[in-house]
Each structure stands twice: as structure tokens, then as C-alpha cells.
Write a structure and sequence with these properties.
The chain has seven helices and 13 strands. It is α+β, with helices and mostly antiparallel strands and about 240 residues long.
């Protein structure tokens, strides 16, 4: 549910965004057609009728989307499959809390992005995730960094090598869109972003960090001290570049 509130900030700056928070789930739709720009989630207690309503909302808008369902809710999984959604595995939900951070890794220049950096950040993210760059630019406009999100980036060789988006609520920070350009992978870029950003928030009173990991990122997050606390099932409405059905 915290991820839903965060994603309403992350995607809510898009001019065609639609975000909805309910007792048992949430929708965060950027307004772009691709599944990787639209997210939804439902909890164990969600009525199947609410899930049906979410799927209807996505399809009525002509979008694809990624749907996460509580791993303890096989009856909701049955509803998703009956609606023709494709199963795409599970996503690790990871939490960092009160775990010592190791010494900073590498010597990469990490800084917080300004509005003027966002076009370059988005171009790098699109390349990292094989996404349509124009859609990324619309979904994450420069105003995002003044609307409640911090984007931390690495400058290298005159370009943006990687970045991550951090959204703070009180003593909690959600981490999203960790991306490293293909030509800079395996050089400690993601670790550097986490090191610098997390230390910044820890010094300012944050105690807990959460994220939804890809399979490729789990090892990095475990090295930093994140632990997997649950693994909701993932279903795709349409097609996704991040989750293969």
C-alpha cells in the first residue's frame, strides 16, 4: 500500500495520469499505453469485484499494465487468469531496516538530479530498460523532482550512467526505477547510487527503505542489507518488457 502512495507521486506528474487508492489496493496509471508505465496491486482482503474493476479501468483506458496480487490470495489469481491476464512470476518485495551499511563502494560521482537533468536521466533509463524514450519523458517530466521525488544520478564520461528514484514519507523511503545504462553495467553504478542516497536519508532520520526488485537486482540489494519479506504474484495485462509472461 505504501508503494501505491509512492507511485501516485512517481507517475502522477504525467499529464494523463490516473491514480486511485482504495482500502484493498491501488491503481497508478501514467496514461501511456505500455504495461511498464502502469501499475496496480491488490491485497489479500481485496474482493474479486474490486480486482475486476481495476482490470476494467485499465482496459477501458486502452492501456497495458502490471498487476501484483498478494501471494496468499490464490482466489484473486484465479480471477486474473479468468480475465485472460498472463502470469509472469513473482516480484520480491524487499526491506532494509537498521542494518549497518558497508563502506562506500567506488568513486562514482553521485548527485541529486535537477529539473534540467531529467531529460538525460530519462534517456538513460529508457535505454537501460528497453523502453520507449518518448513515453518515459512524458511519464517522468522534469516537475517530478519538485513533486515529492528525489532522483539520484551518476555522471560518467559526460553522460548519465545510471540513476534511481527515491520517495520519502516520514521515516520511510521507497526506492524505484534503479537503472544503469548498458555500457556502464557491472561497474558499481547501482551500488554507488544506493550508498550515497541511503546515507543522505539515514543522516536525516530515515529508518526504513523498501523496494520491489527485479531478479537481476536482488543480489545487489541483499549485499546492501535488504531482505525479501514477501513475493506477490505478477500478472500482465497486455505485454511488458520487464516481466515476461
Amino acid at each position: 500500500m505504501q508503494a501505491g502512495r509512492d507511485l501516485a507521486i512517481l507517475l502522477g506528474s504525467s499529464p494523463r495520469a490516473f491514480c486511485r487508492m482504495d482500502e484493498h489496493g491501488w491503481l497508478a496509471l501514467s496514461g501511456e499505453a505500455g504495461a511498464d508505465f502502469n501499475m496496480a496491486a491488490v491485497s489479500l482482503t481485496c474482493p474479486p469485484s474490486t480486482l475486476d474493476g481495476y482490470i476494467d479501468e485499465v482496459e477501458d483506458r486502452g492501456h497495458d499494465a502490471i498487476l501484483m496480487i498478494d501471494e496468499r490470495a490464490p482466489h484473486l489469481a484465479e480471477t486474473a487468469l479468468a480475465r485472460g491476464l498472463a502470469a509472469a512470476g513473482r516480484v520480491p518485495v524487499m526491506v532494509w531496516h537498521d542494518t549497518p551499511l558497508s563502506a562506500p563502494a567506488g568513486s562514482h560521482l553521485v548527485r541529486r538530479a535537477a529539473e534540467s537533468d531529467m531529460r538525460a536521466v530519462n534517456a538513460a533509463m529508457a535505454e537501460a530498460y528497453s523502453l520507449d524514450e518518448a513515453a518515459v519523458q512524458r511519464s517522468m517530466p522534469p516537475s517530478l523532482v519538485t513533486a515529492g521525488a528525489d532522483v539520484w544520478m551518476v555522471d560518467a564520461e559526460g553522460t548519465v550512467a545510471g540513476s534511481g528514484t527515491f520517495i520519502r514519507t516520514g521515516d520511510h523511503v521507497g526506492i524505484y526505477c534503479m537503472a544503469t545504462r548498458p555500457g556502464f553495467q557491472r561497474q558499481g553504478i547501482g551500488r554507488a547510487v544506493l550508498d550515497v542516497a541511503m546515507r543522505h536519508y539515514l543522516d536525516d532520520g530515515v529508518t526504513t527503505f523498501t523496494l520491489e526488485a527485479t531478479a537481476a537486482g536482488v543480489r545487489l540489494y541483499e549485499q546492501v542489507g535488504f531482505e525479501t519479506v514477501e513475493q506477490p504474484s505478477v500478472y500482465v495485462i497486455g505485454a511488458s518488457t520487464q516481466f515476461a509472461a
